[in-house]
Structures are given as structure tokens and as C-alpha cells.
Amino acid sequence: MENRITHTPTGLADILCDEYELKLKIENTAAEVFKERGYRMVQTPTFEYFDVYDAANPTSAENMYKFFDENGRMLALRPDITTSVARLVATKCGDRPLPVRISYRGSAFRNDETFSRARQREFTQAGIELIGENSVAADAEIIEVAIDVLSRSGVSKFQIDIGQIEFFKGLVEQAGISDKDADRLRSIIDSKDFIGIENILSNYNIEDSIKKLLYDLPTLFGGIEIVHNCLKMDSLNERSRNALKNIIDVYECLKERGYENYLSIDLGLIPNLDYYTGIIIKGFTYSVGFPICTGGRYDNLTSKFGRSMPATGVAIGVERVMETLNAENSNADDSDEYVTVALAKGRLAELSVNIFEKLGFDCAEMKTKTRKLIFTDEKNKTKFILVKASDVPTYVEYGAADIGIVGKDTLLESGKNLYEVLDLGFGACKMAVAGPKEMKGKLEGRNIMRVASKYPEIAREYFHKVKGQTVDIIKLNGSVELGPLVGLSEVIVDIVESGKTLKENGLEVLEDICGLSARLVVNRVSMKLKREKIVKIIEEMKEEIS
Q1: Which of 18, 27, 405, 531 has the most CB atoms lying inside 10 A of its own CB?
Q2: Residue 129: beta bridge partners?
Q3: Are residues 166 and 123 part of one domain?
Q4: What digits encode the pLDDT tens for the residues 231-264?
Q5: Residue 2 predicted with pLDDT over 70
Q6: Domain check: are 433 and 422 in the same one?
Q7: What is the CATH number of the domain that holds 494?
Q8: Cβ-based neighbour number of residue 64 at 10 Å
Q9: For 20, how many CA atoms within 13 A lie in the half-sphere containing its CB?
């Protein structure tokens, strides 16, 4: 029996003395920079009425910690501090001249079903909000402050990516894409899932140049020349064109102030928070596999609380800055020199090694009988690590590996926050709902059903979200075909190749869920900071398998 009195809940942690001193140093450095720039500190409640956060971003409701007060009113722990600050300024700062410069630091909380280190359930934010000014100078100011905080905290290698949400919205408007598909497309572009992008765009009659731009959006990151090249397109509508001009104006403003070397452009930077309306920023470093700061313009947020004011801001992830500093102080950190590739042990690794060999990588040692798990190709500055298939997404998400090759089934089940950049084609099969033939045609409309599967997350996603059916998901680790045969379940969700095993057990495919094959995945930060090396591998692989 689990002894819960000696442990903290998943996603929460104690911070010991030395760690806390570093954390406090980062927070104090941020507070000093904020004060120097004219930002005054406020404190908002740790929890508020659920309605506050639901009004700001309805799609995040399921990831909030919610509870009730003594009168039955729903409350929520704050998932971010920006929303609370926007409420505060809109309702309590009416007599202050605009713009208002506010700073804060404190904990925020998010409850994510697919928990990983990328989504700590309690995390500290130190940030600023510049409310009441809609200008290039205001957007540049919050980026400049973020750079100063990171630099003065001791982070030596980082970059700030700049995007513009109106560019994407303009393309969607021009393409005539529905709101529902636009939301799906935004999520798919953010994960760089080219197959998913193509599937959505294929349903619309879109002008070729705009269709290609939407398809290429995940690759449009790098220098400011990307923006200038897009502006040369005569087919762009005014909304997208103005967004690009806004990026250039902000970039030039920061360049004049000497911050050019910290900046990068990402036109595929499309956050899942509904309230962003303009410039978007994310900070990345070699040492951590996740953004260390995020922010942008949110001109419509304060209107939710009764007073419409333009606004922009940025939040620093304090724990991620701590992790960055610890990694930079480690003598073993050579992460900026090598590209590390995670390969799944077994047949998938063999097929992957064959591709890398054809591309000119030294894989000879991996093809020998050895118990080694790490192999280095010094000529190509590449490291290969052999791991269990189900662990590949974890190694890549955490930044222990820059890229990985793994089956689509493993990706779907893991729910990791990765870029899925290429379908390699091999290991092709499908995920399907299977069961006795008498179940054929009886799945639709059934609201009570037991489903057995080795892939509970895939089964849950398909039945609960895609089909909108309430089912009981039963996790099995082997011989899932037995479920319907012994009355444990009515149907199963499993990988189907030839269908021979199903047939021998009196089962058949009832519905296809999705096609499966090996995919090339990339860590989100590595794609930014090792772009040249990784894009070269992607392009060479694409050419090899075509």
C-alpha cells in the first residue's frame, strides 16, 4: 500500500536549501530588473472564481484544479497569473494613467492528464504586464526585459523566438477554413505534424500559394529574412501582411537597442491560449528541453472584466531557469555540439540504422553483437542511444535526445510534447476497433461499452473525444484478443497488421482508427537551436524514403 504521508503528489516537489537559494536569487534578479524598468509588484489570489479563468481561456478548463466554496460556487487554482493581473487592472486601477506597468511572482497550477516534466503541476512565474499601450515599442520592451532578466540571472546561451498569431489567422481567413478545423490546424502546426496538416488542408479548395504556405508554416523559423520572403507573396491578404510588418518593426526596434543576437523568427509559433492577439514570444536554451519564458500581446483579455485595454507581457519560468543554470554549470554539457538520436531497440532500430547508414552515418558498431547503449559518430557529431520503444518519446521530450524514431502508436499513447516531422513509411499497420462479427454496425450510438486495449489513451481519445461515447477502458498488457472471448470486454482496440490473429480468434476489424508507421520526432527546443543539423537530417531522410 502506498505511503502517501512521505511523498508529494505527482508534479509537485520540495525545494531544498541550496536549490531554494538559487530560486530566490533568480526571483530577486527578476524583481530588480522589473523595478528598474518601472514595473510595480502586485499580488493576486492563489485561487479565484472559476469564471475568471474560463472567461479568459475556455479551452483550458479541463486542466485547472477546481473545487467549491461553502456556497457551492466553483473556484480554481490560478493556471497563470496574467489573467488575474488583467482582472485586477481592469477592476481596481481605473484612476491610474495608462499605460500601467505591473510585475508579479508566484506559483501557478495546471492539472494535465498526460503529465510530464514539461507540464509541472505547480510552477513559479516571475513576469510583467504592460497594459494600456498598443505599440511596437511596448512589444519590444517586454522582450527586452525578458532578455535582461535571463542574462542577469546567468543564462549564457538562449534565444527569443518571435511569432505573430494574426499571420496564422489571416491565412486561415483567406483559405476559408472553419473555426473547428482552424483550432485543430493550430494544434497540429504547433506539433509540426505535417501529415495532419495535409489531411485538413485536403478538405478545402485553397489557392496553391496559400495552401503551400500553411503546409510549410512549421518550417518557417530562423532569421528575419523568412518574414521578408513571405512579404514578397502578392497573394497574401492584408491581415497576414500587417502581421509580418509588425514582426519586422518589433525586430528592428530591438536590433537598434543591440538585442539582435538573441532573436529568432518562428511563423509557426501558434500558442494554444485563446487570448493572444498579436506578437508571441518564447525563450529557448540548449540546456533545457522546454521554453524558459513565454508571452505576447493579448489586447482582448481585460475587456472580459469590464474595461478594454491593449496589453502585452511575458512570464519567466523560474524552475526552468534554475535547471538551465545547473546544466550550464555542468562540465559534461556538450549538448550544443552533438545531435543525439534515440532509436527503439529491436526491428525498428535495425530499419532506422539502415537509413542512417545510407545517409553516410557510421553505424557499424550498432550492427555488431554488443551490450553498449550509446554509440558516437565523431565525424558527423552524432550520438545514437538505444532505448525501449515506449521510452523514445520521453528521451526526446526531455531533451536527452534531440531526435528519435518511434512508431505512431507509441507517440499517440505517450501524449508527449514533440514535433512529429516525418512519416518514414516502414512498420506500416493500423490501429483499429475489433470484436465479434455480430458487433458490426452496432458501435454507433452505444453509450455503455467495455473496451480492452494495450493502448488505453488511444482508446479513450477515440471513443470519448472522436466518437463522443462513454466507455469503460480496460488496460491489458497481452493477448488483448481474449477480452471479448471471455466476456471481459465487448470490443478491443489494438494494432492490426495482417488480421490473421483476429480471424483465428473469431474477431474482425469493426472500425479503423488511424494508420500507423515509424515517425521521425524532434525535441521542440532542439529544432530551434540545432536547426541546421536537424533540418539536414530531415531533408536527407525525406529524399531517401521518397
Answers
A1: 405
A2: 102, 313
A3: no
A4: 999 999 999 999 999 999 999 999 999 999 999 9
A5: no
A6: no
A7: 3.40.190.10
A8: 21
A9: 5
